[in-house]
Amino acid sequence: MPIYNKLVRDLIPKIIEADGKTCVTHTLNDSQYIAEINNKMHEELAEYEEATNSEDAVEELSDLLELIHAAAAYHGVTIEELEAVRAEKAKARGGFNERIYLVEVADD
Fold first, then answer.
1. Which of these, 12, 11, 13, 8, lies nearest to 37 by C-alpha position?
2. Which residues neighbour 6 within 8 Å (Cβ) at sequence distance 6 or greater?
3. How would DSSP label each residue in 6-27?
4. Torsion angle of alpha carbons 94, 86, 48, 4, nearest 10°?
């Protein structure tokens, strides 16, 4: 029996059981949960970086977005509130659309 020891999506145990298998799970406490969200974000980011085509990249981005939703809820904000923070930062500092790569800043 493979051992996973990782955070999974809510329906994964039911999917496993529907396949005629059994699984062992438990519910994480708050500190375990946010630690595992962070671990899963690193895992999904690595998978995004390894994607070799746009379809796979979008799949991994959707996983990251789901984790961002979970992390936002953990921190007590809605996605709309998170989006408002993002929009305010973009208004004040810009986004990343112009692909600007800062090389150096001279001290005058």
1. 8
2. 36, 39, 40, 43
3. S---TTHHHHHHHTT-------
4. 160
The parent domain of residue 79 ranges over: 30-93
Q: Looking at the domain assignment, is residue 11 inside a domain?
A: no
Mean pLDDT of 24-41: 98
* Overall number of domains in the chain: 1
CA 47 to chain centre: 11
> What number is the average pLDDT over the span 80-99?
98
pTM comes to: 0.90
Beta strands in 1-108 (DSSP E): none
Q: Is residue 8 part of a domain?
A: no
How many Cα atoms occupy the beta-carbon half-sphere of 6 within 13 Å? Answer: 13
Residue 62's domain is classified under what CATH number?
Answer: 1.10.287
